[in-house]
């Protein structure tokens, strides 16, 4: 190494030595050289100086010396690199050994295969995309080592849910080969598990001839399909290639329990036993819905326990045959229409008999919450489901109808009425005594200019004389100005200690502005950091 250092020092002085040796020895020449050096310095600092003949000769000399010095430095670097090559190779080998030793001591080696399999299952957060990338889950789990591969391939639950990008462009690009290979792997590795099959139609979907081979792979496994989702990724059914979904008519879904679609019902020629359906989700916001077809379709779905409908309700009522869904416990209804006529919603509940319904969600989609009219028969129609425990309504209800709704549902446990509904004071007093909704323990409601009445009600519920359950989770929504809204609550001095007392008694009470509540994904308890007011 000393030899290398000496050589480096010698080489680094080469340019200086050459320049010293080239210096002129006569006075006149020194004057000339001094003037040309000034020219060169000027040329190096700007783009405008034109060198004289003598300055150009001197610059060429400097250029030649720099090239020679650069070449010698390159040779020096190559010599150093050659000297370091062997130590670097040895270090790389030693680092590899170090990693091997660490792997040998890894706690993962002591984890039983059963636990490792559970970890793998929790690591996969969604369906397997086909076609997809092999560096994604769960494919990458089988590429770490032979043991991980054995565990991953043996865990059937890793491979039981698949999302097929039914993309017209990709099918044409790959001619279905990549689809076929990945589907074959998924179907074989899931073995006997029931399958969730999600179909996302993109770019119009493939031509039926292009997807023929892919479809033939699915048919032998039809008995294992218990969940089917069909989504129009283009959000416009009119762009779908005719007969794109025709292949579903060749598959008999004898064990289907969950169906989720956002394409018209008549575009699904699948043969499945609707008497086994437990969950039905229809999203027809972008399509014209044939309600007669929907009525006929639902007549075969008597075992439904959960139904989610996103429908463009017409402005006029539509008659239909009565449907008794005695097993349905949860109904989520999204009303999509500007100024939708409430008579149709009434007709909807007239057609559906829901004696065992325990959860009802009614939300508007698009426009204001008060653009969907609420007709008086709705209260009695909803109250027929006397077992209702959770009600969330995001449609404006007239005051007189609101009282009727609350008093008509004695089994209510959770009530969410976020916008435009202020419960009258006398009704709140009855709620405080436990005469109305005695089982209620979670409440979210508008309380603009009526905070004191709600505090009276909450205090009444915790009184020993009340026959009602305590409402432990309370969210009071205020529709005030957006700026300094907390200052516009008109809180009196006596309100603060009352709120503090309720908090100390264990109530999770929050006072919030209407814009701070994400009602579509709301869940108790309210998670937003409480305001200074709600903290007392």
From TrEMBL:
Residues in F-box domain copies: 110-162
**Which interval of the chain is the signal sequence?**
none
Which InterPro entries does the record cross-reference, listed alphabetically? F-box_dom, LRR_dom_sf
Q: What is this protein called?
A: F-box domain-containing protein
- Its source organism is Hypsizygus marmoreus
């Amino acid at each position: 190494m000393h030899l290398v250092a000496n050589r480096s020092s010698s080489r680094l002085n080469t340019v200086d030595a050459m320049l010293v040796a080239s210096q002129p020895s006569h006075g006149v020449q020194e004057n000339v050289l001094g003037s040309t050096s000034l020219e060169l310095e000027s040329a190096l600092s700007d783009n405008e100086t034109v060198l004289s003949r003598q300055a150009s000769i001197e610059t060429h000399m400097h250029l030649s010396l720099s090239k020679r010095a650069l070449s010698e430095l390159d040779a020096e670097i190559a010599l150093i690199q050659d000297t370091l090559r062997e130590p670097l190779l040895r270090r790389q080998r030693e680092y590899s050994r170090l990693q091997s030793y660490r792997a040998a001591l890894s706690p993962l080696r002591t984890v039983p295969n059963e636990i490792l399999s559970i970890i793998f299952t929790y690591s996969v957060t969604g369906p397997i995309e086909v076609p997809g990338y092999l560096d994604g889950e769960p494919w990458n789990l089988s590429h770490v080592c032979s043991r991980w591969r054995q565990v991953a391939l043996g865990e059937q639950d890793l491979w039981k849910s698949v999302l097929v990008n039914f993309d017209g462009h990709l099918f044409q690009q790959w001619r279905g080969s990549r689809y076929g290979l990945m589907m074959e792997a998924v179907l074989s590795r899931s073995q006997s598990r029931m399958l969730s099959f999600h179909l996302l139609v993109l770019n119009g979907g493939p031509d039926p001839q292009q997807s023929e081979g892919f479809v033939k792979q699915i048919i032998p496994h039809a008995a294992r399909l218990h969940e089917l989702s069909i989504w129009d990724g283009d959000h416009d059914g009119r762009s779908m290639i005719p007969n794109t979904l025709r292949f579903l008519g060749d598959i008999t879904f004898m064990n289907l329990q969950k169906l989720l679609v956002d394409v018209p019902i008549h575009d699904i020629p699948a043969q499945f036993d609707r008497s086994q359906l437990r969950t039905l989700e229809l999203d027809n916001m972008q399509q014209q819905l044939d309600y007669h077809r929907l009525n006929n379709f639902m007549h075969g779905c008597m075992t439904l326990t959960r139904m989610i409908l996103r429908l463009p309700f017409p402005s006029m009522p539509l008659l239909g045959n009565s449907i008794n869904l005695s097993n349905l416990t949860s109904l989520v209804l999204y009303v999509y229409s500007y100024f939708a006529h409430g008579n149709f919603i009434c007709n909807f509940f007239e057609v559906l008999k829901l004696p065992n319904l325990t959860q009802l969600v009614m939300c508007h989609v698009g426009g204001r919450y008060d653009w969907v009219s609420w007709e008086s028969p709705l209260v009695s129609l909803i109250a027929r489901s006397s077992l209702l425990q959770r009600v969330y309504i995001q449609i404006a209800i007239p005051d007189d109808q609101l009282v009727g709704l609350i008093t008509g549902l004695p089994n209510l446990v959770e009530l969410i009425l976020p916008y435009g509904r202020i419960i009258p004071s006398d009704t709140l007093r009855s709620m405080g005594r436990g005469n109305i909704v005695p089982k209620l323990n979670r409440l979210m409601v508008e309380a603009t200019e009526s905070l004191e009445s709600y505090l009276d009600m909450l205090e009444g519920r915790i009184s020993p004389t009340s026959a009602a359950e305590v409402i432990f989770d309370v969210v009071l929504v205020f529709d005030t100005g957006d700026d300094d809204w907390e200052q516009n609550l008109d809180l009196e001095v006596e309100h603060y200690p009352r709120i503090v007392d309720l908090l100390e008694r264990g109530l999770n009470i929050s006072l919030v502005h209407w814009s701070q509540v994400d009602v579509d994904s709301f869940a108790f308890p309210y998670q937003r950091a409480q305001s200074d007011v709600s903290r007392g």
